[in-house]
Specification:
The protein contains eight helices and four strands; from the N terminus they run αααααααββαββ. The protein is mainly alpha-helical and 227 residues long. It folds into two domains: 113 residues, Alpha Horseshoe (Serine Threonine Protein Phosphatase 5, Tetratricopeptide repeat), CATH 1.25.40; 71 residues, no CATH class. Strands 1-2 form a two-stranded antiparallel sheet. A two-stranded antiparallel ribbon has the order 3-4. Helix 5 packs antiparallel against helix 6, helix 6 crosses helix 7 and helix 7 crosses helix 8. It is globular and about 65 Å long.
Length: 227
């Protein structure tokens, strides 16, 4: 576990888990019809009904439904280890990392070598420390970064960043939720850019995203009063 500790810091999770989510979503699927958003799954109170609905949702690339129904099936059969992991991966694919954390802790207890479960637990613990440290330092902005993995912690080439304000009365929980919303935006976007072959890194380690728009703004917190 000591060798894993350095390797499995948040910088690794930042790129590995979104790539995992992409692989899960794409596995065994075809392009979806235009009316895909209107597809409805039947309600069921049985294990088999929820399990089959979850499997169907995975085939249809509906990670939201997959997570919902597989979790229902797991509630009916909580001792089903295989189902627990399926539900966990569905949550990761949907980007519901906070909901996946308690399931990940059970998976780690069952299998200390479960890489994705370990990363999910470590990410939650590191994030809690980081958010409180930011508040204690009195910073006015915080945020999140997606970057490539290198052996040194948080040192890989940066692909994208998001910035959020720290507001009066924030605690670690409220700040975390504000940052999480931006994580859900930039993680899928970065993976899409990589999949499209638009991301390149030069010899100096500077990342360029082809045909991406640069922001044109400056933020001040607190907002200055008008003259």
């Amino acid at each position: 576990m000591q060798t894993q500790d350095k390797f499995l810091k948040r910088h690794l999770l930042n790129i590995v888990i979104p790539m995992t989510a992409l692989a899960l979503s794409a596995c065994g699927t075809m392009s979806q019809p235009a009316d895909r958003a209107e597809f409805e799954y039947p309600q069921s109170n049985s294990f088999s009904g929820n399990f089959l609905a979850g499997k169907a949702a995975q085939i249809e690339n509906r990670t939201d439904y997959a997570a919902r129904y597989l979790l229902r099936a797991h509630e009916i059969d909580p001792e089903n280890d295989d189902l627990r992991r399926r539900a966990f991966l569905a949550l990761i694919a949907e980007g519901r990392i906070a909901d996946a954390e308690p399931v990940a802790r059970v998976l780690v207890d069952e299998n200390p070598e479960d890489l994705f479960a370990i990363m999910t637990v470590m990410d939650a613990e590191i994030r809690d420390q980081d958010y409180q440290a930011a508040l204690d330092a009195g910073v006015k902005y915080s945020g999140c970064t997606v970057h490539y993995v290198v052996p040194e912690v948080d040192s890989g080439p940066i692909i994208a960043q998001a910035v959020v304000p720290v507001l009066p009365g924030d605690d670690a929980g409220t700040l975390a939720q504000r940052i999480l919303k931006q994580e859900h935006r930039i993680y899928p976007q970065v993976i899409r850019w990589i999949a499209e072959g638009r991301v390149s890194v030069d010899e100096a380690g500077i990342v360029t995203v082809a045909d991406a728009n640069a922001p044109d703004f400056a933020q001040i917190n607190p907002v200055p009063e008008p003259n």
